[in-house]
C-alpha cells in the first residue's frame, strides 16, 4: 500500500465572530493531523465539538482563522475539484432525475464529452446499486436510495478525497450498514478513484468498523483529545471482536462529555 500523505491539517484554529460586543466564539484550537493515502479516518466528538467546522474547512468552504490545510501539496483556500462531500440529508436537487443529479458536477468538466459523461454516470449507477432508478426523481426514492445518489454524485468527479458528514445517520440500521459495506467494498477494490475518506459520525460502532483511525475531539474549544488506531483487520471486525474498542471509546467520550457539562464552581 502506498502510504503517502494526502492531507495535513496544521495548527488549525477557527473562530466565529459573535454579534455585539462579545469575544469571538472559539470553535477549533490547534488541530493537527494528517490523512494518508488509502486511509479511512473518522472524527467523533460530542455535539458542538466542531466536527462539521473542521470538515467544512477541509472542503475549502471555511477558512481557518490560523493555521493551514494542505491537500495534495497545495494549501486549501477554496473548494478543490479533487475533494467531494456527502451530506447527512442528501442535498439532492429535487427537480433533477437520478442521472441528472449524478451528472450535475460534471457539467463544468470540459474534458469530458457528453458520451464520456453518460458512460461515467451509467457506471456509477451500476456500481452504487441504482440500476432501474436512472429516471426517477428524489421524491420517488427511499432514504437509502437517495443517499446512494448522494454518494454517486460525490464520486462522479472522481475525487481523491471523499468527505462524509454523518452520511448514514438519517438511515435505518440495516440500510446504513448495507450502504457502508457497499462503499467500503468499492473503495477497497479500487473501483473508485478515491484514495482516502474522512467521515464525521456519532456512531462509534460504525466508526470502529470502517476506520483505520478515529480522532476524538474535545469540546469548547474543539481540540484533539485522542487518536485511536484500529488494529483489527477490516474483515474481522465483527461486533464480538471490536466490542472492547467500542466500549473504550464510548467511555472516553462519556467521561469527557460529563467533565464538560459539570457546573463550574467559580
Ligand atoms: N458559520 C458559523 N457561524 C457562527 N458559529 C458557528 C458557525 N458554524 C458553526 N458554528 C458554531 O460552532 C460550534 C461548532 O459547530 P459544529 O457544527 O462544527 O459542531 P459539530 O461537532 O459538527 O456538532 P454536531 O455534532 O451537533 O453536528 C457550534 O457552537 C456552532 O454553533
Automatic annotation (TrEMBL):
Coiled coil, from the record: none
GO terms for MF: ATP binding; ATP hydrolysis activity
Entry-linked PROSITE patterns: ABC_TRANSPORTER_1, ABC_TRANSPORTER_2
Pfam family for this entry, one: ABC_tran
InterPro entries membership: AAA+_ATPase, ABC_transporter-like_ATP-bd, ABC_transporter-like_CS, ABC_transporter_ATP-bind, P-loop_NTPase
Boundaries of every ABC transporter domain copy: 7-244
Alphabetic keyword roster: ATP-binding, Nucleotide-binding, Transport
PANTHER family tied to this protein: ALIPHATIC SULFONATES IMPORT ATP-BINDING PROTEIN SSUB, TAURINE IMPORT ATP-BINDING PROTEIN-RELATED
Protein's name according to its UniProt entry: Taurine ABC transporter ATP-binding protein
Amino acid at each position: 500500500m502506498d502510504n503517502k500523505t494526502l492531507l495535513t491539517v496544521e495548527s488549525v484554529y477557527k473562530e466565529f465572530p459573535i454579534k455585539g460586543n462579545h469575544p469571538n466564539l472559539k470553535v477549533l484550537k490547534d488541530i493537527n493531523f494528517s490523512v494518508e493515502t488509502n486511509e479511512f479516518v473518522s472524527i467523533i466528538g460530542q455535539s458542538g465539538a466542531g466536527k462539521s467546522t473542521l470538515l467544512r474547512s477541509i472542503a475549502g468552504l471555511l477558512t481557518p482563522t490560523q493555521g493551514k490545510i494542505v491537500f495534495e501539496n497545495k494549501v486549501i483556500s477554496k473548494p478543490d475539484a479533487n475533494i467531494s462531500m456527502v451530506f447527512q440529508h442528501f442535498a439532492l436537487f429535487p427537480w433533477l432525475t437520478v442521472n441528472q443529479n449524478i451528472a450535475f458536477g460534471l457539467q463544468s468538466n470540459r474534458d469530458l464529452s457528453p458520451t464520456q459523461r453518460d458512460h461515467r454516470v451509467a457506471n456509477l449507477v451500476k456500481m452504487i446499486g441504482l440500476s432501474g432508478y436512472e429516471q426517477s426523481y428524489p421524491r420517488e426514492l427511499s432514504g437509502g436510495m437517495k443517499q446512494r445518489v448522494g454518494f454517486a454524485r460525490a464520486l462522479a468527479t472522481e475525487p481523491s478525497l471523499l468527505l462524509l458528514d454523518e452520511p448514514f445517520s438519517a438511515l435505518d440500521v440495516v440500510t446504513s450498514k448495507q450502504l457502508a459495506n457497499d462503499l467500503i467494498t468499492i473503495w477497497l477494490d479500487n473501483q473508485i478513484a478515491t484514495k482516502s475518506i474522512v467521515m464525521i459520525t456519532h456512531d462509534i460502532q460504525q466508526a470502529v468498523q470502517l476506520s483505520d483511525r478515529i480522532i476524538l475531539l474535545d469540546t469548547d474549544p474543539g481540540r484533539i483529545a485522542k487518536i485511536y488506531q484500529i488494529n483489527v483487520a477490516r474483515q474481522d471486525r465483527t461486533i464480538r471482536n471490536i466490542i472492547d474498542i467500542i466500549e473504550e471509546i464510548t467511555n472516553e467520550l462519556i467521561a469527557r462529555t460529563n467533565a464538560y457539562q459539570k457546573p463550574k464552581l467559580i
